[in-house]
Amino acid sequence: MNDLCTVILAAGQGSRMRSKLPKVAHQVAGLPMIAYVVEACRPFLAKRTLVIVGYQADRVREALAGKAVEFVCQPKRRGTAHALLQAQEALADFDGDLLVVSGDTPLLTSATLDGLLLAHREARALATVLTAEVAEPTGYGRIVRSATGELLRIVEELEATPQERQIHEINAGVYCFAAPALFKALQTIRPSAVKGELYLPDAIALLRDRDGGVQACRVLDPDEVRGVNTRAELAEIHRLLWRKTAMRLLTEGVTLLDPERTYIGPYVRISPDSILYPNVTLEGQTVIGEGTTIYSGCRIRNSTVGDGTVILDGCIIQESQIGDGCQIGPYAHLRPHTQLHHRAKIGNFVEVKKSIIGEGSKVPHLSYIGDTSIGERVNIGAGTITCNYDGVTKHQTVIEDDVFVGSNASLVAPVSVGRGAIIAAGSTITEDVPADALALGRARQINKTGFAAVFRSKQQKG
Ligand code: UD1
Ligand code: CA
Questions:
Q1: Are residues 298 and 416 in the same domain?
Q2: Is the dihedral of CA 116, 119, 121, 125 positive or negative?
Q3: Which Pfam families match (predicted)?
Q4: Structural domain contains residue 451
Q5: Could you tell me if 243 and 108 lie in one domain?
Q6: 127 lies in a domain?
Q7: Dmax of the chain from CA atoms?
Q8: Which of 26, 46, 168, 245 lies 20 to 30 A from 91 at CA?
Q9: Which of 225, 240, 274 is the last residue of a domain?
Q10: Which of 433, 352, 415 is nearest to 363 (CA)?
């Protein structure tokens, strides 16, 4: 299968979205739309994957940062055929098959692409186009067939006759081409009379009479090839995608109390006997272990959560690693690069950033822990703050095993607290604390006997 190159069309603005952001960079369940398309193509291990960019190219590049793709620029948008022509030079020496997909069909699956490729290679066709039979074909190119059912051409909605608009078989915008034949045909495509654009679907009529010919391959599930052109379609895509993931998880042994109100991206994995309350959002490459419970209003992104952990209502967790048997929330915020080892506890209104919380350690109430390493069995009292930022640089706090930090302490970093030390409540700790020491960092209390009573009686008289 390696005699394959992939081209993803993604240069358009997507004007129907009415957005400053290029359409393919819009988020779908926490990932840019085009990332789904790249992912669907990935199993084919194409020799090269070219992404045609143009409108706000940098935003599209950013959306695909770290992916093994090359970018080709289409400086002016003159249509989908013109977009593909931009890749001609880069593919000059390539005589294999070209898989062409649009960046705006995020529900497309690898299985469907596999079927298309197989059909294309079996027939030794010059072009194979993916089509779908849909109830509502408005906006799509229509598949025109002969009386005997042969594929003749594709007509765009704008150019279609009233009869052609009655056709319910649509062009999915996904094709396989024999590369040399395609690029030859693209040279002869003429601009559309209506829009002045060069239409890639016109290549079908041009290749039809050549040796090898063209064919259509129908997709099994038409929802897969839905394009996103408007915000309404973006919302619809979300609904389909969340629903599909929810159904998969239900069959995999996960309890979703209300599947229609659970928002889980397609790459999320959850082990059996986990329970999700309504209104939970799981995004990106999140992995949830077995027997974990996530209560309402939580959003977890690109994070790993172990087995038997409980995440109470209203937590946000991003790019973090959570062990087994942890308890988090309610209303906790775990920012990127946080690690909770097994049985750690992060309680109400606690924010943790880029920190390690050791096994069995607890930060139960109202704390900020940033750039900190906490050992095992540590207790952090309510309201404790690590002061990690001096206005210029971030500094580290180290708290070793079995430390007890009293309530409302401020630990001014860089600072370290040795094993087994105790920090008195209300202390401001600016110097390192040795192991097993008691650190008091506050003014001594003075009690003035009888003062309050005298004060009150003076007030009453005067
Ligand atoms: C296209 C097809 C239509 C098909 C539909 C399926 C054409 C002319 N029409 O229509 O037959 O039913 O997809 O979803 O191809 N793009 C560029 N450069 C351009 C123009 C577009 O890179 O100059 C990219 C866009 O960013 C997008 C993709 O090509 O990712 C498709 O363009 P779009 O405008 O969405 O085409 P449709 O009108 O949906
Ligand atoms: Ca489209």
A1: yes
A2: negative
A3: GMPPB_C, Hexapep_2, NTP_transf_3
A4: no
A5: no
A6: yes
A7: 111
A8: 26
A9: 225
A10: 352
Contact yes or no for 393/376 (Cβ under 8 A):
no
In terms of domains, do 204 and 96 share one?
A: yes
According to the annotation, is 260 in a ligand binding site?
no
In the listed set 174, 209, 225, which residue is the last one of a domain according to the structure?
225
Q: Could you list the residue range(s) of the whole structural domain that residue 73 is in?
A: 4-225
From the CA of 156, the nearest ligand is: 1
- The pLDDT, as a whole number, for residue 82 is 98
Q: How many domains does the chain have?
A: 2
Q: Which atom of ligand 1 is nearest to the CA of 13?
A: 26
Q: Which residues contact 370 (CB under 8 A, 6 or more apart)?
A: 351, 352, 353, 354, 355, 386, 388, 389, 394
Find the helix or strand (DSSP H, E) in which 116 lies. helix 110-123
75 CA distance to ligand 2 centroid (A)? 19
pLDDT by residue (tens digit) across 143-177? Answer: 999 999 999 999 999 999 999 999 999 999 999 99
The reply to whether 144 and 253 lie within a common domain is no
In this structure, the residues whose C-beta lies within 6 A of any atom of ligand 1 are 9-12, 24, 52, 74, 77-80, 82-83, 102-104, 140-141, 154, 156, 170-173, 199-201, 227, 229
* Torsion, Cα of 68, 9, 85, 131 (10° steps): 120
* 196, 312: one domain: no
365 is a catalytic site residue: yes
What local confidence, expressed as pLDDT, does residue 2 receive? 58
CATH number at residue 368: 2.160.10.10
In a domain, 446, yes or no: no
- Distance in angstroms (rounded) separating the CA atoms of residues 227 and 31: 16
Per-residue model confidence as pLDDT tens digits over 77-97: 999 999 999 999 999 999 999
Residues in the chain: 462
Q: For ligand 1, what atom is nearest to the CA of residue 226?
A: 14
pLDDT, averaged across the chain: 97
Whether 399 contacts 372, CB under 8 Å: yes
Claim to verify: residue 198 and residue 339 sit in the same structural domain: no
Identify whether 452 is part of a domain. Answer: no
Determine the pLDDT at residue 462.
82
* CATH number of the domain where residue 63 is located: 3.90.550.10
Residue 140 alpha carbon, nearest atom of ligand 1: 12
Q: Compute the distance between CA of residue 271 and CA of residue 275 in angstroms, rounded to an integer.
A: 10
217 and 243 inside one domain: no
If one counts every other C-beta atom within 10 angstroms of the C-beta of residue 444, the result is 5
Minimal-distance CA residue to ligand 1 atom 10: 140
- Which of the residues in the chain have pLDDT under 70? 1-2
Neighbours of 209 (CB within 10 A): 8
Do residue 159 and residue 262 come from a single domain?
no
Token output for 324: 């087994």
Residue 32 C-alpha to ligand 2 middle, in angstroms? 15
3-state secondary structure of 251: helix
